[in-house]
């Protein structure tokens, strides 16, 4: 068995989600006989990693520092193997604008969008171009910060009058935002888990929001019973296999490793799927989608965590 440092918490807005993911990970690792050291990540991280003398780090951090490549670069510096993707893949997944441009260049369907930073908006007159952007994207428009998880900062603008408030919300979470055409339909997630023989695409999960909710937001994600999940999603074989194929292309395009979750929308009118984003460190809470998909594929939670850990150790050995 291995000595595992479980990295959790941190300073991001998703700290509480991280703590919940980490608690489940710790339980699974201990049940499998591993020696676990829990580290609530802070300014003493390097010192605590050295004291822990861990064989491997399991990253259960969500949001900044955990998903954006920061802690991965630090772990490489101190020479500790870790779960999940490398810094470059994390950076590309964390920044939704980078992700979108990569998808467009590769010919992977993603909703039309425009992106600009706070400097362009306040200093270069980008605000004056909003009417053109709104005309080209058509309403409703989704306004979101370029880098946040758990649907933080995302707002719908159904009319031009709602755009300024949505922009202010998004800018409160990040200095770079994007405006994206809303796709009405099925809210899908496809999780991918590596294996010695290559990536394995898990069953599609559909998040069916509560009638009172506009979309699958932060509260809907983490309040038990707020959202109904269908796994496998009841969308037909062709739609499911098409979403899985797109998810795998996005996973490989961005260089993900170990595991990841790809979020998509299935257009209810055209039947076409669109990739929204890729999450390099998906949640592992009781309401998270990766564990549900793994369960549907016959992989219980403890086996899932063991497999992610084994992949990290195998990568280090290679």
The gist of it:
By secondary structure, the chain is an alpha+beta fold. It contains twelve helices and 13 strands.
Helices, by number, come to 12
Strand content: 15-25%
Question: Can you write the helix and strand succession as a string?
Answer: EHEHEHHHEHHEEHEEEEHEHEEHH
Inertia-based shape = globular
Output the structural class: alpha+beta
* Helix share bin: 25-40%
Low-confidence stretches: none
CATH architecture assignment of the largest domain: 2-Layer Sandwich
Tell me the number of structural domains: 3
The CATH homologous superfamily name of the largest domain equals ATP-grasp fold, B domain
Main sheet attributes: strand count, strand direction, barrel closure = 6 strands, antiparallel
Strand tally: 13
| CATH first level of the largest domain | Alpha Beta
- Find the CATH topology of the largest domain: D-amino Acid Aminotransferase, Chain A, domain 1
Q: Give the termini distance in whole angstroms.
A: 19 Å
- If you compute it from the alpha carbons, what radius of gyration comes out, rounded to the nearest whole angstrom? 19 Å
Can you give the mean pLDDT?
A: 90
């Amino acid at each position: 068995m291995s000595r595992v440092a479980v990295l959790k918490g941190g300073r991001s807005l998703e700290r509480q989600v991280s703590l919940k993911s980490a608690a489940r990970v710790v339980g699974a690792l201990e049940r499998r006989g591993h020696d676990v050291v829990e580290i609530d990540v802070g300014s003493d991280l390097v010192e605590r990693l050295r004291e822990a003398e861990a064989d491997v780090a399991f990253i259960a951090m969500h949001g900044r520092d955990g998903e954006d490549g920061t802690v991965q670069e630090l772990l490489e510096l101190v020479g500790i193997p870790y779960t999940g993707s490398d810094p470059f893949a994390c950076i590309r997944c964390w920044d939704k604008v980078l992700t979108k441009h990569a998808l467009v260049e590769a010919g992977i369907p993603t909703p039309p969008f425009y992106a600009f930073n706070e400097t362009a908006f306040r200093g270069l007159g980008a605000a004056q171009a909003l009417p053109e952007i709104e005309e080209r994207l058509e309403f409703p428009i989704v306004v979101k910060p370029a880098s946040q998880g758990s649907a933080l900062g995302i707002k719908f603008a159904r009319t031009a009058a709602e755009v300024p408030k949505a922009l202010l919300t998004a800018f409160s979470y990040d200095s770079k935002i994007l405006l994206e055409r809303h796709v009405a339909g099925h809210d899908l997630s496809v999780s991918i888990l590596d294996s010695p023989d290559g990536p394995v695409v898990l069953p599609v999960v559909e998040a069916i929001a509560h009638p009172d909710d506009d979309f699958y937001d932060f509260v809907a994600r983490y309040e038990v019973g707020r959202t109904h999940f269908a796994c496998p999603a009841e969308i037909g074989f062709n739609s499911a296999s098409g979403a899985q194929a797109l998810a795998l292309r996005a996973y490989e395009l961005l260089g993900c490793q170990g595991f990841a979750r790809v979020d998509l929308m299935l257009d209810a009118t055209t039947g076409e799927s669109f990739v929204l984003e890729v999450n390099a460190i998906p949640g592992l809470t009781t309401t998270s989608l990766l564990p549900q998909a793994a369960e549907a594929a016959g992989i219980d939670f403890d086996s899932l965590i063991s497999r992610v850990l084994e992949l990290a150790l195998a990568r280090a050995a290679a």
